[in-house]
Amino acid sequence: MKTGAQILIESLKDEGTDIIFGYPGGSVLPIYDVLYDSGIKHILVRHEQAAVHAADGYARASGKTGVCLATSGPGACNLISGIATANMDSVPVIALTGQVPTGMLGNDAFQESDITGITMPVTKHNYLVNDAGNIRRIVREAFFIAGTGRKGPVLIDLPKDVQTGQVDESENLKTEINLRGYKPTFRGHPKQIKSAIKLIAEAKRPIVYAGGGVIASDSSAELIQLAEMLDLPVTTTMMGLGAIPAHHPLNLGMLGMHGTEAANYAVTECDLLIAVGARFDDRVTGKIELFAPNAKVIHIDVDPAEIGKNKAVDVPIVGDAGEVLREMINLSETLDIKKKDPWLVKIENWRENHMMKYRDDKELHPQYIIEQLSGILEGEGIIVSEVGQNQMWAAQYYGFKSPRQWISSGGLGTMGYGFPAAIGAQFAKPDETVVLIAGDGSFQMNIQELGTVSQYNVPVKILILNNMYLGMVRQWQELFYERRYSYTELPQVDFVGIAAAYGIPGLKVEDKDDVEAALKKAMETDGPFLIDFRIEREENVFPMVPAGAAISDMIGCHIPDKEEAKR
Amino acid sequence: MKKQILSVLVENQSGVLARVSGLFSRRGYNIESLVVGRCESPDISRMTIVACGDEAQIEQVKKQLNKLIEVIKVTDITERKHVERELALIKVNAEPGDMRSEVMQIAGIFRAKVIDVGSKTIVLEITGDSGKIDAIEELLKPYGIYEMVRTGKVALQRGSATVLNSK
């Protein structure tokens, strides 16, 4: 006989789980008791929200499924923004929650919340387990659902009596997965793939628009191969950064609201848009009617519901990006698709003249810090961001070389995500340098995780781009609300002092000349390190497409020098 | 705006109705009626959903329904040959005398069944397509309808076509 909790831990091990981020409580005591000497590593965070973000960061860095654990009621509710984050960005996460005993369900018992009801719209699927005998099957299904097709979070709610329930497992332990309503499509339709190749052969101004799906399906090698074979310029979404090296001659950089001029112009002028694992999000497309307005569209996505959702598509291909791209490569090998010379010349010209730029003077500009970081790490390492200006500067100025190097909350834009996600990423890749790029606002949303970093000596490097503002909101207020900075100013904080209180070394940097040395010191330090960069307070993220405008309609492309700016 | 009839097979489990109805409400889809009940296999329920929207919206509804793990199959039977029925119970004012015989006459014309007779009211059961039920409702209104309940539409494809064997 085994208890439900024992079966749960065994099942997690069967799925390859070796680490859980969690926070104990009354309703998960039986699980924690088994976990204690189970061999699975458990990381005690300081807030359940950090547990789910850490599991998410772990999943994004490793490509494996992350697991988090919280107690019932408030513990489970604290997971919600993290679950929604993973759902929007299609990250495989298993959230385990305790629940009041089945006999008390619906009774408003102490620390009861209807977490399966609450998370229904933000999970890929969820389960309320009513019998310990079902745990093994449900865990298998949950991992299968989370990690296949369009990946996403799955929550398993475990009432306390189910955790302690006795099960005789003398029968066959192997439970076959039989989900008749869940059959993700992996292989693209051959006829559609042929039509796509035909369109590419006919196109004069093609461009690839690659998204997070390329990262999630580990198909960036195929993407680069196809682009090089057919001379296809590539732009990526923020979620797709790293799918093609930043300095690859065919890469136009990020597109969209804070994309490069080059990428936004090229998409506007293209006659064929090849979307791969991207979902035509409004932050990418701007005014959708003017997004690639004269282009035919090929859309490759594992989720059929994304195809045609925002933009009409000429050739829909449902399937795994890697599978589809490999088929396209096979087909292209036999064809002679000529170089699109005038288009490539134009692309090259855009790349040379319209990439990212900022005013590089004596002031401490955040862009400069990111560039220096990129230089010191030679574009390696794992860069995790918070949300806001810090995120956009990191996305714009870091020279990513490969996939899974960039970890950031895209769809939901969750402030407070980055720090715990960086912790999770560091546990996934203990030998990599993990750098958190944060704002002073977002860092303070999960600042308590300094405790976790300290306890486990997690060697993340914390870079705070501190402008004493909720910078992105302030930027919008400056541009669209007559500089009325309504509740966006934050008082100064001694972040180095706070880190010191947790036993974490740090440095404050106010001068541009000290940036390089400080970054080197952080990288050389064994263990965590924090740098509080006191940056130019009213620096903006440019270029920028105002909300609702066409993406070719950017502001802030011309960077005035200081004299010009004063006038 | 078109009305579409979706025939949906789902796992017969608790929570499935909440998932489906939640999907409609949070994505802002218009639902005219939703009927759910068990069907030929005990572990499957059939939902008949009448939804309104343009073609693209309905396409999204179908795709989003298909994404639910517990949804086994979605078939749009609007354009397929099908039979549809709705049932209504109508409690209508029918004082003994002329009024009662008129109401009975209307019921007869519509082949409605009288399933309860009270001192002042009768309850009619009527089955048909939605138009037929609308029509009898209109005719009975002048007599005074106390209460009415309509089931919403149920539908099946004609011939040997089924949801599971439909493309």
UniProtKB/TrEMBL annotation, chain A:
Pfam families: TPP_enzyme_C (PF02775), TPP_enzyme_M (PF00205), TPP_enzyme_N (PF02776)
GO molecular function, one term: thiamine pyrophosphate binding
Pathway(s) of this molecule: Amino-acid biosynthesis; L-isoleucine biosynthesis; L-isoleucine from 2-oxobutanoate: step 1/4; Amino-acid biosynthesis; L-valine biosynthesis; L-valine from pyruvate: step 1/4
Enzyme class: transferase
Gene Ontology cellular component terms for the protein in this record: acetolactate synthase complex
Catalytic reaction equation(s): 2 pyruvate + H(+) = (2S)-2-acetolactate + CO2
Limits of the Thiamine pyrophosphate enzyme N-terminal TPP-binding domain: 3-116
Gene3D superfamilies: 3.40.50.970, TPP-binding domain
Span of domain Thiamine pyrophosphate enzyme TPP-binding: 387-533
GO biological process, one term: isoleucine biosynthetic process
Listed EC numbers: 2.2.1.6
Family: Belongs to the TPP enzyme family.
InterPro entries, alphabetized: Acetolactate_synth_lsu, AHAS_TPP, DHS-like_NAD/FAD-binding_dom, THDP-binding, Thiamin_PyroP_enz_cen_dom, Thiamin_PyroP_enz_TPP-bd_dom, TPP-bd_CS, TPP_enz
Name of the featured protein: Acetolactate synthase
Cofactor note: Binds 1 Mg(2+) ion per subunit.
Keywords tagged on the record: Amino-acid biosynthesis, Branched-chain amino acid biosynthesis, FAD, Flavoprotein, Magnesium, Metal-binding, Thiamine pyrophosphate, Transferase
Requisite cofactors: Mg(2+); thiamine diphosphate
The Thiamine pyrophosphate enzyme central domain, residue ranges: 193-327
Automatic annotation (TrEMBL), chain B:
CDD domains recorded: ACT_AHAS
Domain annotation ACT: ranges: 5-79
Catalytic activity: 2 pyruvate + H(+) = (2S)-2-acetolactate + CO2
An example Gene Ontology molecular-function term: acetolactate synthase regulator activity
E.C. number: 2.2.1.6
Pathway: Amino-acid biosynthesis; L-isoleucine biosynthesis; L-isoleucine from 2-oxobutanoate: step 1/4; Amino-acid biosynthesis; L-valine biosynthesis; L-valine from pyruvate: step 1/4
Entry GO terms, CC: cytosol
One Pfam family of this chain: ACT_AHAS_ss
Family annotation (Gene3D superfamilies): 3.30.70.260, ACT-like. Chain A, domain 2
Biological processes annotated in GO: isoleucine biosynthetic process; L-valine biosynthetic process
Family under the similarity heading: Belongs to the acetolactate synthase small subunit family.
Subunit structure: Dimer of large and small chains.
Record-linked PANTHER family: ACETOLACTATE SYNTHASE SMALL SUBUNIT, ACETOLACTATE SYNTHASE SMALL SUBUNIT 1, CHLOROPLASTIC
Task performed by this protein: Catalyzes the conversion of 2 pyruvate molecules into acetolactate in the first common step of the biosynthetic pathway of the branched-amino acids such as leucine, isoleucine, and valine.
Name used for this protein in its record: Acetolactate synthase small subunit
Protein species of origin: Methanoplanus endosymbiosus
Organismal lineage: Archaea, Methanobacteriati, Methanobacteriota, Stenosarchaea group, Methanomicrobia
